[in-house]
Write a structure and sequence with these properties.
By secondary structure, the protein is α/β, with parallel strands linked by helices. 26% of the residues lie in helices and 21% in strands. The two termini are 27 Å apart.
Length: 196
């Protein structure tokens, strides 16, 4: 298991986001397969517990890439309980994400950004809540992603869905928020739940 990136381990002034992204991607890559599976199961269990409390009928999810937590088992359980799942699609470099209906097992292909999207032209939906993968996050539940700004642009729209960040616990780090960053309502890791 990679060492936890402690707040006091980050130089002052805070690491810039590019360096932080490299460090966190390396830590994710270093996870042993059995450790990753254990973490993913724990995160999936916490998401199902959250859903039982919140019960959004439509939930935007993500297909994992670059070592993101794999929640396929949780997605299957949610779908079996009647939740309409939706995957994000990128329609332009500077536009908000859109979401299309998706059922686990449906065929996917990669778009030009490397994101997996349904092969079929499924209907657009506006999810009531979103599971958002985080490379890192800070104490105020601001998300560190890959730098494209897609989720920030999406969350700037109204009505804003409830947001649940998904990350590994070692992704809790210090970084400065930019003016366009939007805090998540909550972040779930294998170790616990964080709220601003």
């Amino acid at each position: 298991m990679p060492p936890r990136i402690a707040r006091d381990a980050i130089p002052v002034p805070m690491q810039n986001k590019l360096e932080l992204r490299r460090t966190l991607l390396a830590a994710r890559t270093a996870l042993a397969p059995d450790q990753r599976q254990l973490f993913d199961r724990r995160i999936g269990t916490k998401i199902l517990q959250w859903w039982r409390t919140e019960q959004p009928a439509t939930l935007g999810v993500y297909w994992p890439m670059r070592g993101e937590p794999d929640l396929h088992q949780a997605y299957a359980s949610l779908s079996e309980q009647g939740v309409q799942l939706a995957l994000p699609i990128i329609v332009g470099d500077t536009t908000p994400l859109q979401f299309v209906q998706w059922t686990p097992g449906e065929a996917l292909h990669k778009d030009r950004f490397g994101t997996s999207v349904p092969v079929a032209e499924n209907a657009l939906v506006q999810p009531q809540a979103l599971l958002i993968p985080c490379l890192g996050f800070n104490a105020e539940c601001f998300r560190l992603g890959y730098g494209g700004g897609f989720y920030d642009r999406t969350l700037a729209q109204q009505p804003r869905p409830r947001t649940l960040g998904v990350a590994y616990a070692f992704g809790e780090v210090d970084f400065a928020n930019e003016v366009y960053d939007i805090a998540l309502d909550m972040v779930i890791t294998e170790e616990g739940t964080f709220q601003p």
